[in-house]
């Protein structure tokens, strides 16, 4: 029987490796925002990814607005090439993942059911002879064999999300710190065609470098994502649009 509980606490003074994923082209914006977190040092910026070390509270990372998501960094797997044989290597490597330690760290910022259900998210750069879905299943098979934890394909039903991000022949492995992706906002229930992703809208506001007391005006605001993100940054914000459905 699974119970809703916090697993054993870990000392918050320990340094944690993390990485954030962001929208292509916004890596430097996200790195700048990430770097403002107390006790955090940015250690690298790459395609859609910002790496960092943080010592202290992890909770502030869940309030960052230009990131798509933030993960505990579990390390890298090398030699994950294009042939289908890479799937066997992925399954074998997933069997040795130290997910219990990651669960303990995540439990410092949120409640986790134990033993947890886990999901897998995967993406890669370049062409492969296998799909992201096959990567997910290979990781799931390895974790189930190594830990006996239950896998779900429904991320919203999981307690932990394992992230696999493959660049060339290197796979970056992480566990989502929060319960849900950071780019998902509670206010954005409906996605209209052409509507900005909230993390991109937040980046646009930051790039405008508004001064305290200024008003952000979006005269063609659509669903109002930029206006809302500006307001959530404690700016005066207003907007309108000719499409009443989008405004609603």
Topology:
Layout: E1 3-5, E2 15-21, H1 27-35, E3 40-46, E4 49-55, E5 69-78, H2 85-94, H3 99-106, E6 112-114, E7 117-124, H4 132-147, E8 150-151, E9 160-167, E10 170-176, H5 198-207, E11 215-218, H6 225-232, E12 236-239, H7 244-247
Parallel strand pairs: 7-8, 7-9, 11-12
Antiparallel strand pairs: 1-6, 2-4, 2-5, 3-4, 5-10, 9-10
Helix pairs in contact: 2-4, 5-6
How would you describe what is shown here?
The longest helix has 16 residues, at 132-147. It is globular, with a radius of gyration of 19 Å. The chain has 248 residues and is α/β, with parallel strands linked by helices. 26% of the residues lie in helices and 28% in strands. It has helices at 27-35, 85-94, 99-106, 132-147, 198-207, 225-232, 244-247, and strands at residues 3-5, 15-21, 40-46, 49-55, 69-78, 112-114, 117-124, 150-151, 160-167, 170-176, 215-218, 236-239. Helix 2 runs parallel beside helix 4 and helix 5 (198-207) packs across helix 6 (225-232). It has 7 helices and 12 strands. The protein starts with a strand and ends with a helix. Strand 3 and strand 4 (49-55) form a beta hairpin. An 8-stranded mixed sheet has the order 3-4-2-5-10-9-7-8. A two-stranded antiparallel ribbon has the order 1-6.
């Amino acid at each position: 029987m699974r119970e809703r509980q916090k697993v054993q606490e870990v000392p918050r003074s320990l340094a944690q490796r993390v990485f954030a994923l962001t929208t292509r082209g916004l890596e430097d914006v996200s790195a700048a925002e990430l770097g403002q977190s107390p006790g955090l040092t940015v250690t690298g910026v790459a395609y859609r990814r910002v790496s960092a070390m943080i010592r202290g509270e992890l909770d502030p990372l869940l309030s960052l607005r230009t990131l798509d998501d933030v993960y505990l960094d579990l390390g890298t797997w090398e030699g994950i090439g294009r042939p289908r044989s890479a799937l066997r290597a992925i399954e074998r490597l997933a069997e040795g993942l130290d997910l219990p330690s990651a669960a303990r760290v995540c439990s410092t910022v949120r409640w986790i059911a134990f033993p947890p259900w886990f999901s897998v998210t995967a993406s890669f750069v370049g062409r492969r002879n296998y799909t992201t879905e096959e990567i997910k299943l290979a990781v799931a098979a390895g974790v189930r064999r190594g830990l006996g934890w239950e896998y779900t394909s429904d991320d919203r039903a999981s307690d932990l999300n394992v992230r696999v991000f493959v660049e060339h022949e290197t796979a970056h492995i992480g566990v989502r710190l929060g319960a849900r992706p950071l780019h998902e906002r509670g206010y954005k229930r409906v996605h209209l065609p052409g509507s900005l992703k909230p993390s991109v809208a937040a980046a646009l506001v930051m790039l405008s470098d508004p001064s305290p007391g200024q008003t952000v005006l979006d005269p063609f605001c659509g669903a109002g994502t930029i206006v809302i993100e500006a307001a959530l940054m404690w700016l005066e914000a207003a907007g309108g649009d000719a499409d009443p459905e989008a405004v609603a």
